[in-house]
Design goal:
Layout lengths: L2 H17 L3 H29 L8 H29 L5 H22 L7 H21 L12 H32 L12 H27 L3 H30 L12 H16 L17
Length: about 300
């Protein structure tokens, strides 16, 4: 190839790259539309759950628990999602990961609304929240450049400490539910799943979701973080942010049950501060003490 031909080829390639938008930027509007749909649906579902007397057509304990969840969704999750989506339209990297974490929490939490109650007037709305949340989460993960987070796993001491926290959470959750399942098989009874007053259906659902979704997520994130993989940072952040929000919902649901005069309800779980602390410490180890990666900048600056 002559020097002139080589120059023409380089020039043509550079022009092609300049003309074509980055892959993430090209697909961001699709994810944005799904994000808006999820925010609107969660807002509608949480308001309906709080304001409609027989929204869940379920027992008093379950209704009170889900209304506690809806209050957190309305006051914390919806504003946080809107802010994260707004941020993600202007920056790449961490804002997209925060949006993904909120979407993961929404899908998990509304699994209780959808599967833990009797058929009710909000069934289609809850199904729409779970389905749209899953699609939005998939859209965000598909445009996420995982290598943007390579810089955040370079501090091996902090990263491995966070991996240890996630491994501890995975082992504790797996051991708890394994013990409960074996006790149920031996005694023929369904033990309490938590300090919340829950039906057998809810205990079963919680065990299933945790063992099938959370334990593998925590364990997988721990292994990847220990190896210094950027995917470990992504999965670990999603797991810990969603976990903190779920613990907040759990703590809010308990006084809701007390206010509804549910027999056996308690306003506080004394073991909860330790659990919340584990999540927060793991999250601080991942996100604290780092400068923002270079990818956390205006998407327009990512052009070649």
């Amino acid at each position: 190839m002559s020097l002139r031909t080589h120059r023409r080829t380089v020039t043509t390639g550079a022009a092609h790259r300049a003309a074509a938008p980055p892959a993430g930027e090209a697909r961001t509007p699709v994810a944005f539309r799904w994000d808006v749909a999820v925010a609107v649906l969660v807002l509608a579902a949480s308001l309906a759950g709080l304001l409609l007397d027989d929204a869940f057509s379920s027992d008093t304990a379950t209704t009170a628990m889900l209304r506690g969840y809806d209050l957190v969704n309305l006051v914390v999750v919806v504003p946080s999602l809107i802010a994260a989506v707004w941020w993600a339209q202007r920056r790449t990297g961490l804002p997209q990961l925060l949006t993904s974490s909120l979407l993961a929490y929404i899908v998990y939490t509304y699994g209780y609304h959808l599967l833990g109650t009797m058929f009710n007037d909000l069934f289609l709305l809850h199904a729409a929240v779970v389905a749209s949340g899953a699609v939005a989460l998939t859209a965000h993960l598909s445009i996420l450049d995982v290598h943007e987070f390579d810089v955040r796993v370079q501090n091996r001491r902090r990263v491995r400490a966070s991996a240890a926290v996630l491994g501890l959470l995975a082992a504790a959750l797996a051991a708890l539910w394994a013990y409960v399942a074996m006790e149920s098989a031996i005694t023929g009874t369904v033990p309490a799943g938590s300090a919340l007053v829950e039906t057998d259906t809810l205990v079963h659902l919680g065990m299933a979701l945790d063992l099938v979704l959370l334990v593998p997520l925590y364990a997988g994130a721990a292994v990847l973080l220990w190896r210094g993989a950027a995917w470990g940072f992504v999965l670990g952040t999603i797991a810990l942010i969603a976990g903190v929000l779920h613990q907040v919902s759990y703590m809010v649901a308990m006084p809701f049950q007390v206010a509804s005069s549910v027999p056996g309800a308690v306003a506080f779980d004394p073991g909860e501060p330790l659990i919340v602390m584990l999540y927060l410490v793991g999250l601080w180890l991942l996100l604290g003490g780092h400068r923002l990666p270079l990818a956390d900048r205006d998407p327009a600056s990512t052009h070649d």
